[in-house]
Design brief:
single chain, 337 residues, alpha/beta
Length: 337
């Protein structure tokens, strides 16, 4: 059955303030550049720039920051008419430092934020049953009413024949307890076809012992003990038939039910900022997935998009077009070499 939208993304959006003082300790930052962010928002923009017809289900306040986000998305051509404004709630904000190659402190301002107020009524007003792929983020499950709205949306999408994709999106500061994150994610996996996540995120989703989580002052410094050899089969046994493990500079690994894992190499580049690279990967992978590419090619495109964004100063604003990906990959022998 033909669907109006290739991809519908649901979840957080924000104004992202990236430090202009690259390499400086956070206390010495003097200025920031303003971009649009939020994992599902970044993925939506990235997939649209590559050529998908995308719509976004997020929420913003009635503030000028909401105007900023909507203005950017409308200029990009992303469908915004399903994005409600929530009076009395704030549009989310994120402040980011850049101290490459390993330190990228992030602070989220999500108290009373608008996108966590997404409701079942907002889902009913959106094209959840009129898309080929419905993608959402794990952060959606952190609070009500967005938690129930997301579960409802996943149910509707599944019933309509859409593929349901979860980006694990583990943000420890958005949860009162990391064990609650794992419980919430595991509860939705029965509705999910595809999971995308890093090693730490996969382990966090299956976590039962909070003592395994090593938390520091920065969300990007959070780590979860152990490798994924036990977590992945346990996760996939709960429903998903495909898991894409993001592995940074090593590329990504495909875990498909009934098949051995397949490693897909990345593109070696000098890292400027890792922030948002995984979302750029998601946009690239979903472009290939929606278009019926074989999984290796789809993941390779995701790797290229992620590699481009780690050389940039932001995420959504810098996700590549297909022509830019092809030009970048030419220096490595081609996109699918």
């Amino acid at each position: 059955m033909s669907k109006t939208y290739d991809l519908l993304n649901m979840g957080r959006s924000s104004i992202d303030l990236y430090s202009n003082d690259v390499g400086s300790p956070f206390v010495n930052i003097t200025s920031f550049a303003a971009y649009v962010g939020g994992s599902p928002t970044n993925i939506c923009v990235g997939a649209h720039r590559l050529g998908l017809n995308t719509a976004l289900l997020t929420a913003v306040g009635t503030d000028v920051v909401g105007d900023f986000i909507l203005h950017f998305l409308q200029n990009e051509g992303v469908e915004t008419r399903f994005i409600p404004r929530k009076p009395g709630h704030n549009t989310s904000a994120v402040v980011l430092g850049i101290e490459p190659p390993h330190h990228f402190p992030v602070t989220f301002y999500r108290d009373n934020c608008a996108d966590i107020q997404l409701s079942i009524d907002d889902v009913l007003a959106a094209p959840v049953q009129d898309c080929q792929v419905f993608q959402f983020a794990g952060t959606n499950l952190s609070k009500e009413p967005c938690r129930s709205a997301t579960l409802f949306a996943a149910e509707l999408a599944r019933q309509s024949g859409a593929k349901v994709v979860l980006d694990i999106d583990f943000r420890p500061g958005q949860w009162h307890d990391p064990r609650a994150f794992g419980v919430a994610v595991r509860s939705v996996l029965r509705l999910v076809d595809v999971v995308i996540g890093t090693e730490d995120e996969i382990n966090a989703a299956m976590l039962t012992d909070v003592s395994q989580v090593k938390r520091t002052h920065s969300e990007t410094d959070t780590a979860v003990g152990g490798d994924t050899r036990e977590a992945i089969p346990q996760l996939m046994a709960l429903g998903p038939s495909l898991l894409i493990e993001k592995r940074g500079e090593a590329g990504a690994r495909i875990h498909e039910s009934g098949h051995p894992p397949v490693d897909v190499p990345g593109f070696p580049v000098e890292i400027y900022s890792i922030l948002g690279a995984g979302d750029a990967f998601g946009g690239g992978f979903l472009y290939g997935y929606v278009n019926g590419w074989d999984l290796y090619r789809a993941v390779r495109l995701g790797n290229a998009c992620g590699a481009i964004v780690v050389t940039k100063h932001g995420c959504a604003n810098f996700t590549p077009t297909m022509a830019e990906v092809e030009a970048f990959a030419a220096g490595y022998g081609g996109l699918f070499a």
